[in-house]
Amino acid sequence: MKTKQSSILLLIITNPIGTMQKYTVAVVQAAPKLFDIDATLDMTEKWVEKASAQGAKLILFPEAYIPAYPRGLSFGTVVGSRSPKGRDLWLKYWENALEVSSEHCSRLGKMAKKAKAYLAIGVIEREAIGGSLYCTLLYFGPDGSLLGKHRKLKPTAAERILWGEGDGSTLTSLDTDIGKIGGLICWENYMPLARMAMYRQGVEVYLAPTADHRDTWQATVQHIACEGRCYVLSCNQFVTKEMYPEELRNTEEGKQLPEIITRGGSTIISPLGEVMAGPLFGEEGILFADIDLRAVAKSKMDFDVVGHYARPDVFQLQVPHQPEPIRVHEKV
């Protein structure tokens, strides 16, 4: 699907060591079928096919795309109290969350394989033992395999009622044939040390799926691009009140929701902070942009936050259990 704000690359060049220097990336701004994992996967497949048809080698979906970012819903909670109806809603959310060992997860891998692309998608991950939920970014390779995952380190505000916390062991990055890929979810990107943990992995294409649709978010992702000297792909949903299940719209809480729940704001930023595509507001769509990894190297001539502009004699960062970059060249 091509939008008015799309920039599409048709030329692909591969360097001698096998890393693709130029390729197309796609950022999908869309809503799920809220609280319905099967219907959402059907919609996901259609969006992946549209992005693949334009030659995308990396496709990003928003935070909590499966099964929903439940904006505006309290789940019957106030300080010191939970309601039976809130627990019923939690059950519906829990039942439609995704387990990484499930057929639902395998289906996402099949989409990536069919598209011959890397797929990164925000999900609500259900722990197989214990049943806790996590806001997670899953990475799939063009061979269909689940390459890695990152769990959000610090859910924000009322998100903490719903989601557990990740740790350093899922500060994941991928060393792939299209460059080094990694990123953080939503307001994790306001955590300077979390960003630094990703920069020191050598991330060239930084993924920032989010639920933040404010104008100030645009300044955030531009800053990350300039600070990390990396491409930044920021991806949000576009959701209206009409998209919420009818039984939720008809509750007292649902009646208070605005007509536009989340207005989007997806964008793609260059390593020097220039806007390449977007921001896209007020509609669903796909943003496309051309990636040239040589631009990452050129941008570091005058600033490299983990190189010549670092002061390891003054500052040191320790992240227990952060994994080394996952090398996946041999898998594709």
The Cα radius of gyration reads 19 Å
Give the integer mean of the pLDDT values: 92
- Shape designation: globular
The N- to C-terminal Cα distance equals 26 Å
What would you call the quaternary organization? single chain
H-E string: EEHEEEHHEEEHEEHEHEEHHEEEHE
Largest sheet: 8 strands, mixed
Q: What ranges have pLDDT less than 50 throughout 5 or more consecutive residues?
A: 1-17
Total beta strand runs: 17
Q: Please tally the helical runs, counting DSSP H or I stretches of 4 or more residues.
A: 9
Secondary-structure content class: alpha/beta
Q: Helix coverage percent of residues?
A: 10-25%
Tell me the fraction of residues in β-strands, as a range: 25-35%
Describe this entry's structure for a reader:
- The protein has 332 residues and is an alpha/beta fold.
- Helices cover 25% and strands 28% of the residues.
- The protein has nine helices and 17 strands.
- The protein has helices at residues 37-53, 84-95, 103-115, 159-162, 192-199, 215-228, 246-249, 252-255, 294-299, and strands at 13-14, 20-29, 56-60, 77-78, 81-82, 118-126, 133-140, 146-151, 173-176, 179-183, 205-209, 231-235, 238-240, 260-269, 275-281, 285-292, 326-327.
- Strands 9, 10, 11, 12, 13, 14, 15 and 17 form an eight-stranded mixed beta sheet that branches. Strands 1, 2, 3, 6, 7, 8 and 16 form a seven-stranded mixed beta sheet that branches.
- β10, α5 and β11 form a beta-alpha-beta unit.
- The longest helix has 17 residues, at 37-53.
- The chain is globular, with a radius of gyration of 19 Å.
